[in-house]
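Can you give me the bound-state structure? Components:
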Amino acid sequence: MELIAISHPDFIPNEAERINALFRDGLQRLHIRKPHCNVADLSQLIGEIDPAFHTNIALHSHHELAAEFGIKRLHFPEKLRQGTPDFMLEKLSNAGFTLSTSIHDIDALTQLSKGFDYTLFGPVFDSISKEGYQRVINDDFYLKEEQKTIKVIAIGGIDHSNLNKIKQMNFDGAAMLGAIWHSDSFFKSFSKIAGGLSPRQNGLDSDLNVDLKSDQNFISDSSSKIAGGLSPRQNGSDSDLDIDLKSDQNLISDSSSKIAGGLSPRQNRSYSDLNLISDFKKITKLHFISNQTLEISHLDSINLALEAGCKWIQLRVKDQDESEVLQIAKSAKPLCENYGAKLIINDFPNIAKAVSAHGLHLGLNDMPIPEARNIVGDNMIIGGTANTFEDILLRIEEGANYIGLGPFRFTKTKQNLSPTLGLEGYRDLMQRLAQEKKEIPIIAIGGILPDDIPTLLSTGIHGVAMSSALIQSKEPRETVQNLKKYYVENCR
Ligand code: TZP
Ligand code: MG
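Here's the bound-state model for the whole set.
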């Protein structure tokens, strides 16, 4: 039986010292799970943990910190797993990372990528830390060997009193949160929590020489302080074990994963795969392209998309002077900000820079991407249009962050349309990319309707861009919600 400690979801007083004490006391694995924490605070906490224990840490978020701290264990909470293509998970696994995930339905085991080493499963008992979070199995549950496609670690409501039940249910291990961080006086040390488990059962291998008796008092001392005030870094709710279709995190777009800022000294090949995941995460999977028609202005179309729940808005103004586009961009920026959405400017690097847009999108006849990069700087996302395989290679060569590949089918939204690709076109291009081992987020565009998404996603594209389908939708909000559901169901 392997025992895993899950961190407190918030930052708590003396946390690093407590974690160090747990490790010194025999803990083999700590999952750092702090939903909604920011990267700087997490980095500070890890920096305060004894480096000897960094290899025993698994990160639930901000995987980009792995390189800096030599961390080789990455956890993919359900939503993150759904937003990460299997080939990337396998790539990370092949590069030497130990990958884990979370499931709440035991049948999901059969659908997990081969890249995972183990999964958390639960809650197996009513949660201690999350009130009202009820168990998903009964007392007579037994995990059959043939069900275990990978190791299954039970989680939820586990403490010393029911650890044996977990063993009887044939789980490979137990993960604990409440028993460690919410207990008052009973658990004075990790070795107590481990109860009668021998060091080997408790996952203690010879690679860490620990004295189970050391520091027993330390935890009890500090645990009394847990009840005390939470640090200013404390934050957020506790939701990464659930899928919340309303949450835009389903459309993975973590702008905080900024790996671009130079490689750390510890950076090596395996971490470059991690950078790739981060690169994909930066690109939201549903792009809205603004349009002006007789019925609607650019800003109204943007408003409609924002209201419907789009978080990636491209301002694409044709046939107007740069000064006019600048005015529209200046109005679009606060609109997007109000909705927590990202603004991308089509065609005009200087406008993108002037309004501090999140990104810039350039067509094949626009300024070359490297030239635009000189204007907008290293941190701005730049997307490039492509119609053929050669275009895609050019865009990768130019350093594009994503590619708008299309058109999928005929559309009136764009003049001078390139030849349509159709589903076969995407299949062919995505296969060629895979054969050449080229990886870049591909956004399909052009005449796309909501019902096209599942089949388009099956070609391996990252996401889709839409304009008229949303503007003309009778229920734009419902359309966007349905699209998000498609992603959850089709992207693992
Ligand atoms: N590039 C290729 S098709 C297109 C662009 C900008 C327009 C997309 O709009 P719609 O209405 O979704 O076809
Ligand atoms: Mg253009």
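A couple of observations. The two ends are 28 Å apart (CA to CA). The first strand starts at residue 2 and ends at 6.
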